[in-house]
Amino acid sequence: MPPRKKRRPASGDDLSAKKSRHDGMYRKYDSTRIKTEEEAFSSKRCLEWFYEYAGTDDVVGPEGMEKFCEDIGVEPENVVMLVLAWKLDAQNMGYFTLQEWLKGMTSLQCDTTEKLRNTLDYLRSLLNDSTNFKLIYRYAFDFAREKDQRSLDINTAKCMLGLLLGKIWPLFPVFHQFLEQSKYKVINKDQWCNVLEFSRTINLDLSNYDEDGAWPVLLDEFVEWYKDKQMS
């Protein structure tokens, strides 16, 4: 039986190569672990992010909101801010409380400015779903009104209607003109909800509008005003 060959001890170059491979594998693992930790939602990081805008308070107010909008690259009047407020279930326009922020951002899995920026397209896409749009539209009424009032003042109503319907309802410019010259100082929730239903179901020539239907007087008057305007 031939003698067994002794295993040649590893040379310095071999040891260096092995060490280099091990170091490379460790660095790859370590960078992957760090990246995973950064991608994972962190309540602590979300809380720190909140206080960048809230300061020493437990609420992001108008000044903090302005900086927040600037950081995420969105105008305060952009409709995506309304969608974000809806996702946070914010109760007052221009303010995010700590509880609203943590609950909403957790549901969105956003704990940094960059993550929220990357979520904006998703928030905008929610407006394309008719069910979500209706929920956001209804939410907007209570969000925008003064909390000691049951109705929405007409100027705020016109702004919010423009934000939500201005680009999707061809008759909105005419309806806005009607509101401008009307006697209405406020819009109640029933009127608000019916405007959306009207925009979705009534033909642009108003040919299927039933004057004896259950529409509020506001819309009866709009139809009458619009028909008179077309005839004059």
Core attributes:
2 domains; Recoverin, domain 1; nucleus; two-stranded antiparallel sheet; elongated; 4 strands; 232 residues
Please sum up the structure shown.
Its main location: nucleus. With 232 residues, the chain is mostly helical.
Write down the domain tally: 2
CATH topology term of the largest domain: Recoverin, domain 1
Shape label: elongated
Estimate the strand proportion.
under 5%
Q: What is the CATH H-level superfamily of the largest domain?
A: Cullin, PONY binding domain
Task: Give a structural overview.
It is found in: Nucleus. This is DCN1-like protein. InterPro entries: DCN-prot, DCN1-like_PONY, PONY_dom. One of its GO terms (molecular function) is ubiquitin conjugating enzyme binding. Pfam families: Cullin_binding. The chain has 232 residues and is mainly alpha-helical. The chain folds into two domains: 85 residues, Recoverin, domain 1; 102 residues, Orthogonal Bundle (Recoverin, domain 1), CATH 1.10.238.200. It contains twelve helices and four strands; from the N terminus they run ααβααβααααβααβαα. The strands form two sheets. The protein has a two-stranded antiparallel sheet with strand order 1-2. Helix 8 packs antiparallel against helix 9 and helix 8 runs antiparallel to helix 11. It starts with 11 loop residues before the first helix and ends with a helix. The relative contact order is 0.07.
